[in-house]
Specification:
Helix content is 39%, strand content 21%. It is an alpha/beta fold. It folds into two domains: 282 residues, Aldehyde Dehydrogenase, Chain A, domain 1, CATH 3.40.605; 187 residues, 3-Layer(aba) Sandwich (Aldehyde Dehydrogenase, Chain A, domain 2), CATH 3.40.309. The strands form seven sheets. The chain has a seven-stranded mixed sheet with strand order 14-17-18-13-12-20-21, with helices on both faces. The termini are far apart. Bound molecules: nicotinamide-adenine-dinucleotide.
Length: 543
C-alpha cells in the first residue's frame, strides 16, 4: 500500500497486424498453429488457482476438420460451480480491498502479455477451435481483447474521478464499491475477446467472478486463465467453470450471493437466465445486476443514391466474414429495384470467388461453422428457403459436414419481406435480399424498422444527405450500432461502443464506461469538518 496516484493516458487502439507473406507475425502464428494442431491439452475448471477436473471429458475439435482433436476438457457441473462460488466469495473481501492501482496493473500487464508472447498463442487457439481466419482472430483475440483491458483501466480511472462537490466545511465523496456477492459471467463461443471481457470487466472493478465459458470454444479460455495468472491475478478472483451449461446456470442463478450476471449469447438463453433471476428474486441478498448482449437480425438498407461497389463490399464482408457468426453480421438487405440487377450480378460473381476451407491455409476467406448443432440449424434454414416459393437461392446454398461443418456463402432473394429468413437470427453465412420500389424510401425504412424483434446493428447506404437523415430518424431504435456507408460489423473499442436494445439486450455497451458502471454500487460519504453544536435553529429564537 502506498499513496501514489498514477496518471494513466488515454490508450491508443492496438494496431492490427497484417500477416502478409514474409512478416514476422506470420511466421510466429504459423509456428503456434503447427504446435497446437498436434498438441493434446488436458484441463478442467480453474478454481481458486487450482485445476479441478470434472467427470465428463469433452473433446475440443477443429470445426473445419472435426476429426482433429486439440485436447480434452474435463467438464463438471453444479458441484464445480458451487466450489467456484465458494472460492469467489472467499477471495471477495481481499480483492475488494486491493488498491485500484494494483488491479489496474494486473490487467495492463495482461494486455502487454497478449500484445507480446501470448498473441500467436491466443490467435492460434481461436483459429483452430473457433475456425477463424488469421485476420478474424487478430481483430478479436489480439486487438479487441488488448483494447478491452487497456481502455477498461482508463474508463475505471474516469469513473473513480467523478466526485461530488464539497462546500466549505464538508468533504463529500463517492466510494465506488464492488457488488456484494459474486458475478456470474456467461460467455458465447464466437468472440475470444468477449469470452475474456465478461469476467475481467467486473473483476477490474473489484468484483470476484464465476466464469462459465461456452463449451464449444474452450481452448481460448484455457489460455486466457494461464495468461491472467501469469499477469498476477490472485487465486479466486476469476474462477473458470468448465461445466454443463444448465447445471452450472441453475447452481449459480439460485445462489443467495448472486450479485450480477454478465451475459453474452442467444436471446433464448438470456430469457432463461432472466426468468431464473426473477423466480429467485426473494432468495438473493441484493437485487442482481443483469447485463446482457444477445442476438441480432442485422440489416443493410440502400437508397437509390447508394454507391453500388461500397454496398457490394459491405454485404460480402458483413455477411460472410467469420461465416456470418457475428452478432452484428448482415443477414437482411433492402435494395431499390433499380440497383438490384447490377448488385445481384456483382454479388454472385464475388461469392463464386470466395475460398472456404481450413483456416490454417491463409488463402481461405471463410472457415467452418462452430459445431454440428449450428450446422444443422443453418441447413434447416437453407431447406426452408428451397421449400418456399417466395425465396430464390442465387448463390451458394450448399452445406457439407464430411470434413468440417462447412456452409457455403449463400445469397437468397425474397419476395416476402416478412418471411422467416428476413426476421429470425440464422447465425450463419446466409444473406437474404428484398428489392423495394425506388419511389418508396420511407416505406422501405418503416418495413426494415418493424421487421425484427432485435435492435443490434444496421447500416444505411446513400449519397443523398436528406435520405440519410430520414433513415437515421426512422431507424433510431432499430440498431444500437448504426453505420452510415459502412458495413455493420467490426465495432472497435473506444470508437463504436457496442450493444443493442429491444431483444438484443440491455445495451450496456461493452468497451465503455457504461458497462463498468454496472459493476459498482456507489456509496456517498459526507464528512462534516465543523458539525453544528447547537440543535436549535435561528428561526426558533424570540425576536
Ligand atoms: P448460447 O446462448 O448458445 O450460449 C451462450 C452461453 O450461455 C454459453 O456459455 C452457454 O453454455 C451458456 N448457456 C446455455 N444455456 C445455459 C443455461 N441454461 N444457463 C446458463 N448458461 C447457459 O449462444 P452462443 O451460440 O454461444 O453464441 C451465439 C449467440 O450470441 C448469438 O445469438 C449471437 O448473436 C450472440 N452474441 C451477441 C453478442 C452481442 O454483443 N450482442 C456478441 C456475441 C454473440
Amino acid at each position: 500500500m502506498d499513496d501514489s496516484m498514477p496518471r494513466f493516458r488515454r490508450p491508443a487502439n492496438e494496431p492490427v497486424l497484417a500477416y502478409a507473406p514474409g512478416s514476422p507475425e506470420r511466421a510466429q502464428l504459423k509456428a503456434a498453429l503447427a504446435r497446437m494442431r498436434n498438441e493434446q491439452v488436458e484441463f478442467g475448471s480453474r478454481i481458486a488457482g487450482a485445476e479441478v477436473r470434472g467427470e465428463q471429458p469433452l473433446e475440443l475439435v477443429c470445426p473445419h476438420e472435426h476429426r482433429r482433436v486439440l485436447g480434452r476438457c474435463h467438464m463438471g457441473g453444479a458441484r464445480e460451480t458451487l466450489q467456484a462460488i465458494e472460492a469467489a466469495l472467499a477471495a471477495r473481501q481481499r480483492w475488494a480491498a486491493t488498491p485500484w492501482q494494483e488491479r489496474a496493473a494486473i490487467f495492463l500487464r495482461a494486455a502487454e502479455l497478449l500484445a507480446g508472447a501470448y498473441r500467436p498463442v491466443l490467435n492460434a487457439a481461436t483459429m483452430l477451435n473457433q475456425s477463424k481466419t488469421a485476420h478474424q482472430a487478430e481483430i478479436d483475440s489480439a486487438c479487441e481483447l488488448i483494447d478491452f483491458w487497456r481502455f477498461n483501466v482508463w474508463y475505471m480511472t474516469q469513473i473513480y474521478a467523478e466526485q461530488p462537490s464539497s462546500p466549505p466545511g464538508v468533504i463529500n465523496r463517492l466510494d465506488y464499491r464492488p457488488l456484494e456477492g459474486f458475478v456470474f459471467a456467461v460467455s458465447p463461443f464466437n468472440f475470444t475477446s468477449i469470452q475474456a471481457n465478461l469476467p475481467t470487466a467486473p473483476a477490474l472493478m473489484g468484483n470476484t467472478v464465476v466464469w462459465k465459458p461456452a463449451p464449444n470454444a474452450m481452448l481460448a479460455p484455457y489460455y486466457i486463465m494461464r495468461l491472467l495468472e501469469e499477469a498476477g491475478l490472485p487465486p479466486g478472483v476469476i474462477n473458470m467453470v468448465a461445466g454443463d451449461p444448465a447445471a452450472a446456470g441453475e447452481a449459480a442463478l439460485s445462489h443467495p450471493e448472486l450479485a450480477g450476471v454478465h451475459f453474452t449469447g442467444s436471446v433464448s438463453t438470456f430469457r432463461r437466465i432472466w426468468k431464473a433471476v426473477g423466480a429467485n428474486i426473494e432468495r438473493y441478498r441484493s437485487v442482481p445486476r443483469v447485463v446482457a448482449e444477445t442476438g441480432g437480425k442485422d440489416f443493410i438498407i440502400a437508397h437509390p443514391s447508394a454507391d453500388l461497389q461500397a454496398l457490394h463490399t459491405a454485404i460480402i464482408r458483413g455477411g460472410y466474414e467469420y461465416q456470418g457468426q457475428k452478432c452484428s453480421a448482415v443477414s437482411r438487405v433492402y435494395v431499390p429495384r433499380s440497383l438490384w440487377p447490377e448488385l445481384r450480378e456483382r454479388l454472385v460473381a464475388t461469392i463464386g470467388e470466395i475460398r472456404m476451407g481450413d483456416v490454417t491455409d491463409f488463402t481461405n476467406f471463410m472457415g467452418a461453422v462452430i459445431d454440428a448443432r449450428a450446422f444443422a440449424k443453418i441447413r434447416g434454414y437453407l431447406e426452408h428457403a428451397r421449400s418456399q416459393s417466395c425465396y430464390r437461392v442465387l448463390a451458394g446454398g450448399g452445406a457439407d459436414d464430411r470434413i468440417g461443418w462447412f456452409v457455403e456463402p449463400t445469397l437468397i432473394e425474397t419476395t416476402d419481406p416478412g418471411g422467416r429468413l428476413m426476421c429470425e437470427e440464422i447465425f450463419g453465412p446466409v444473406v437474404t435480399v428484398y428489392a423495394y420500389e425506388d419511389t418508396d424510401w420511407l416505406g422501405a425504412l418503416e418495413l426494415c424498422e418493424r421487421t425484427s424483434p432485435y435492435g443490434l446493428t444496421g447500416a444505411v447506404f446513400a449519397r443523398d444527405r436528406a435520405a440519410l437523415q430520414t433513415a437515421s430518424a426512422v431507424l433510431r431504435y432499430a440498431a444500437g450500432n448504426f453505420y452510415i456507408n459502412d458495413k455493420p460489423t467490426g465495432a472497435v473499442v473506444d470508437q463504436q461502443p457496442f450493444g443493442g436494445a429491444r431483444h438484443s439486450g440491455t445495451d450496456d455497451k461493452a468497451g465503455s464506461a457504461h458497462n463498468l458502471r454496472r459493476w459498482v454500487i456507489p456509496r456517498a460519504i459526507k464528512e462534516a469538518l465543523a458539525p453544528p453544536l447547537d440543535w436549535r435553529y435561528p428561526f426558533m429564537q424570540e425576536a
